[in-house]
Amino acid sequence: MSNYPGRIITKAPVLPSTTQASGIWTLQQAMQAIKAGAWPGIPTNTVIQSFTASGSWTCPDGVSQVDYLVVAGGGGGGGSAPAEKGGGGGGAGGFLTGTAFPVIPGTTYAITVGSGGSGGGVGNTRAGSLGSTGSNSIFSTIISNGGGGGAGGFTGSGSSPESHAGAPGGS
């Protein structure tokens, strides 16, 4: 038996094709394929833009469609009843997502970032006030509705708690 000559044994990474990508892969295998540009379904020229304030976006040359996620502002929580019951939580802002939304290079698109609703105040009689509805978020013609305001807390009797119901949620 002869001794091993001292080289490191390596194996070339296995990179999946679109037909070979099904199955179970280790994180290392997947990352090697992604870095090599050989992982199916991941474009090599993806740009992600996030907006935290209203403004505009101009479509760059060579772009004809975009994927989007539009999230509206959440509703404010309801105010509490005096010294007793807390108000309801505000509704989540609605969200819309989609792929391949058509855009035109050189065109400027308006972007509105919806704000969260304000919380309701503490009531001075038997009920807290309602939280306000969150604002809508808009990208081009895509409108995501703001979340509903939370119901005010209610205490005691003689007044209908239904009059303190929260607003509808977002979509």
Describe the secondary-structure layout:
Layout: H1 27-35, E1 55-58, E2 65-71, E3 95-102, E4 108-112, E5 137-139, E6 142-144
Antiparallel strand pairs: 1-4, 2-3, 4-5, 5-6
Give a written overview of the molecule.
The protein has 171 residues and is mainly β. Helix content is 5%, strand content 18%. It is built from one helix and six strands; from the N terminus they run H-E-E-E-E-E-E. The strands form two sheets. It has a four-stranded antiparallel beta sheet with strand order 1-4-5-6, with no helix packed on it. A two-stranded antiparallel sheet has the order 2-3. The longest helix has 9 residues, at 27-35. It is elongated. Mean pLDDT is 76; it is low at 1-11.
Characteristics of this structure?
171 residues; single chain; mainly beta; 5% helix
Q: Any low-confidence stretches, pLDDT <50, length ≥5?
A: 1-11
Give the radius of gyration: 27 Å
Major sheet: size, sense and barrel closure?
4 strands, antiparallel
H/E element sequence: HEEEEEE
Q: How many strand units?
A: 6
Trace the largest sheet across and list its strands.
Answer: 1-4-5-6
CA distance, first residue to last residue: 73 Å
Task: Give the helix tally.
Answer: 1
Q: Indicate the mean pLDDT.
A: 76
Beta-strand content: 15-25%
